[in-house]
Design a protein that fits this description.
Layout: H1 19-22, H2 27-34, H3 36-57, H4 65-68, H5 71-89, H6 98-114, H7 121-149, H8 155-183, H9 195-218, H10 235-244, H11 248-279, H12 287-321, H13 323-340, H14 353-364, H15 367-372, H16 381-410, H17 414-432, E1 439-443, E2 451-455
Antiparallel strand pairs: 1-2
Helix pairs in contact: 2-8, 3-6, 3-7, 3-8, 3-9, 3-11, 5-7, 5-16, 6-7, 6-9, 7-16, 8-9, 8-12, 8-14, 11-12, 11-16, 11-17, 12-13, 12-14, 13-14, 13-17
Length: 456
């Protein structure tokens, strides 16, 4: 047995789990608890799959695309720790988490309606910022919602259900423009943003709001889960102390998250225009370009469909290999998928690499959070989740600032950036092997400090 001590804020006072945390949840209850993630991912998937195409339709150059995406991650970097801090401390008739679900959903729905109708490049960038910021307000407390209510023995399953819903939402978002164009009488041979994409964004706004409302109505928060942390220090001091006292598991996971999500952002930023320019040979504003973007959405839909299927199987693989090895193997599948895209020249074959990427995304949406919840204090759960989500945002900022410069200085094309993303994911797979696979518990003490006992 190995024991070590980790100190957190001296103001922290941790409660024992409430009775509601001890009861097991049915699959239906876990579904209701996280179904809002279906809407969140539907909205997020629409912006990821079509954002670059919307920017190019408004006149953006390939080197401008990363900068146009910069405002969104910058807002996430600031918003997520603040939302986590506030959510841990408020007490309303609706609970600690659900007010943030609704607020984020309302603003996100407005942004989804307006974004495809933007009349200028910078208007589109501003609406993308609003959408990303509002989605972060909803998403950060959703992760903590599962950790708050679900007992420890079911938390991995709870996060796997979230991963399944994320994949399902992303499937619908990625495929919707293609379905709108091929199952209706909409025409894609018009200049500007295709009507199929506009209608998909309208549907996304409705789904975002409806699924979040469903979770709020069907899943009450435990009345026993109230803040036990007095605000003696300022918010900035509390956030900084939480960063300074991150447990070892969280620190290693942070590196894994950075390299994993850098790979995903390389794909999201450049895969749609890469398919359009390098496989279809299409130029923005042409009918062929519109069809190529619809096809790239279909590729991302296959990726996310695989994510759904893989999410169903991850729980069983974890039982045999453990969370660390399962996550590492999944990331390796994603790395192989992204790198192999450079060898493909036929549109139909693009669906094959998406299988590996889908497996990686299924793991990224669940296992890091399942491992994280074992190493963080219960009463600061949402604050630590907000900080942890910053390690998704940081690689997005790097991608926004650095990828355009890389393309200019090195002279690489869009496909090369996608391959770079695969290499980054391979590094994440190696780093995942360094995650401590140990049972970690925060133990309440009589004094003013909390000790972290690590049993290996």
């Amino acid at each position: 047995m190995v024991k070590s001590t980790q100190f957190v804020s001296p103001q922290a006072s941790f409660q024992h789990p409430s009775p509601s945390q001890q009861r097991l949840f049915s699959v239906g209850a876990l579904w209701n608890m996280s179904v809002g993630f279906l809407g969140i991912q539907f909205g997020w998937g629409l912006q990821m799959a079509n954002g670059s195409a919307i920017f190019e339709s408004l006149g953006a150059t390939p080197h401008q695309l990363p900068l146009l995406w910069l405002a969104a991650p910058m807002s996430g970097l600031l918003i997520q720790p603040v939302v986590g801090y506030c959510s841990d401390r408020i007490c309303t008739p609706w609970g600690r988490r659900r007010p943030f679900f609704l607020t984020g959903a309302l603003f996100s729905s407005v942004a989804l309606i307006l974004l495809p109708n933007a009349s200028s490049l910078w208007m589109a960038a501003g609406l993308l910022w609003l959408l990303d910021a509002s989605a972060n307000v909803s998403m950060t407390p959703f992760r903590s919602f599962v950790a708050d209510l679900v007992p420890a023995q079911q938390q991995t399953k709870g996060f796997v259900v979230q991963s399944l819903l994320c994949g399902l939402g992303a499937v619908l978002a990625s495929a919707m423009p293609w379905l709108m164009a091929h199952w209706t009488s909409l025409e894609s041979n018009t200049a500007g943003i295709p009507m199929s994409i506009k209608l998909s964004f309208y549907l996304g706004a409705a789904m975002f709001l409806a699924t979040v409302v469903w979770t709020v109505v069907t899943t009450p928060e435990s009345q026993g889960l109230t803040s036990a942390i007095p605000a003696e220090d300022s918010m900035g001091q509390q956030i900084w102390m939480a960063i300074a006292t991150m447990p070892p598991t969280m620190r290693q996971l942070a590196w894994v998250q950075c390299f994993s999500w850098l790979g995903i952002f390389c794909m999201f930023l450049y895969l749609p225009p890469a398919i359009a320019h390098h496989i279809f040979g299409a130029l923005p504003g042409t009918p062929l370009y519109a069809k190529s973007i619809e096809w790239s959405g279909l590729c991302l839909a296959v990726d996310n469909l695989v994510c759904c299927v893989a999410a169903l199987g991850i729980y069983g693989v974890v039982a045999k290999l453990g969370e660390r090895h399962t996550h590492s193997l999944s990331l390796l599948c994603g790395a192989i998928g992204l790198i192999s895209i450079s060898w493909i020249h036929q549109p139909g074959l693009l669906l094959m690499p998406m299988v590996g990427v889908g497996i990686a995304i299924a793991s990224m949406h669940s296992l890091p959070y399942a491992m994280l919840t074992k190493s963080i204090p219960t009463e600061q759960n949402c604050l630590y989740m907000g900080i942890f989500n910053c390690f998704i945002v940081l690689p997005e900022i790097f991608a926004s600032l650095g990828l355009g410069w890389i393309m200019t200085c090195i002279g690489c094309d869009r496909i090369s950036i996608v391959v770079l993303g695969g290499c980054s994911m391979a590094i994440a797979a190696i780093l995942a092997q360094g995650i401590p696979e140990q049972r970690q518990e925060w133990i309440e003490t009589r004094g003013s400090n909390a000790n972290l006992s690590v049993n290996g």
